[in-house]
Amino acid sequence: MSDRELVRSYAEPPKLGRRKGEWIDIRLPEALAGAAPQKLLQMTPIAPKLANKLIQAKGVLAQGTTLRLKLFPAEAIDFPPDWMELNVLYEDDFTLVVNKPSGIEVHPSEHGQRRTLAHAVASYYEMTNQQVRIRHIHRIDKETTGPVLYAKNEFAHYEYDKAMREKSIERVYLALAEGVLEKDRGTINKPIGQDRHHSTKRRVSETGDPAVTHYEVVERFVDHTLVRLRLETGRTHQIRVHLSAIGHPLAGDGMYGGKRGLIARQALHGERLIWRHPWTGESLSARAPLPDDFAEALGKLRG
């Protein structure tokens, strides 16, 4: 039987394996002992492009019924560490999910900027003796709270970027909108482009990029509505622009027409992040607790 036929015979994905330092060891079926590394890699979730790179870097070893892959090479942390308290929602060898507080950016927006979430994650990696580059998969606005996903090696980064393009990473938000939304649920399908008069502002524009937001009403108040939203696309300020465009700007969102009497920032919180593990394919989710200022705003409305 050829190597190719052997791989087909054992097409089930391998178990997670066991990490040993920079390597992960995977047990193989006896019938695959001695098969070429290129063929053995076809059994793993590693894309051909990365598999070839791994082989060229001598990061693949086949030892009897064990396949060893150098998936966790030591890397220089590429941001100077700035310590701040981090709320880690989920972590394993491939993934880190951090609950971002309001008031800090995910990544520097200008040269030399410090005290972003990237610098805080760098500090966390340093304190936990992890030699890992900072690889954020998506961003959320400076004043928005909620989960941010990080990849902890090149393989996970490749898989998560692919998942983002395929829209298979789901982000669920809670927002406090001004006014009372009449429909219990709906979809806002309006393209978004840059505002010609304001470099950091966005607006609904026929020539903009496609943008789709799904919403459902969670709770109605006298003059506000708590809504849960799911993004089909990930445009800058998408929820803020879309809710403003239908006449219901976020409470506290002065840029898009909201008032700041109830809360001092836009009332937008990433409630859940749902994704599949890049190695095992297992469905995972992380839920971020409602921040104090958002909870206090809801308390005032309910009171």
Structure description:
Strand 14 and strand 15 (283-287) form a beta hairpin. This protein has two domains: 3-69, no CATH class; 87-302, Pseudouridine synthase. The chain has seven helices and 15 strands. Residues 1-14 have low confidence and may be disordered. Helices cover 20% and strands 28% of the residues. The strands form four sheets. The chain has a six-stranded antiparallel sheet, with helices on both faces. Strands 1-2-4-3 form a four-stranded antiparallel sheet, with no helix packed on it. Strands 5-6-7 form a three-stranded antiparallel sheet. The chain is elongated, with a radius of gyration of 23 Å. It is α+β, with helices and mostly antiparallel strands.
List its traits.
single chain, 303 residues, alpha+beta, 15 strands, 28% strand, elongated, disordered N terminus
What CATH calls the topology of the largest domain is Pseudouridine synthase
Binned, the helix content reads 10-25%
CATH architectural group of the largest domain: 2-Layer Sandwich
How many runs of DSSP E, i.e. beta strands?
15
Report the average pLDDT across residues. Answer: 91
Specify the CATH homologous superfamily of the largest domain: Pseudouridine synthase
The helix/strand order is: HEEHHEEEEHEHEEEEEEHEEH
Overall structural class, as computed from helix and strand content, comes to: alpha+beta
Strand content: 25-35%
Multimeric status of the protein: single chain
Question: Which spans of ≥5 residues are poorly predicted at pLDDT below 50?
Answer: 1-14
> What is the CATH C-level name of the largest domain?
Alpha Beta
Enzyme class: isomerase
Region (Disordered): 187-206
GO biological process, one term: enzyme-directed rRNA pseudouridine synthesis
EC number: 5.4.99.-
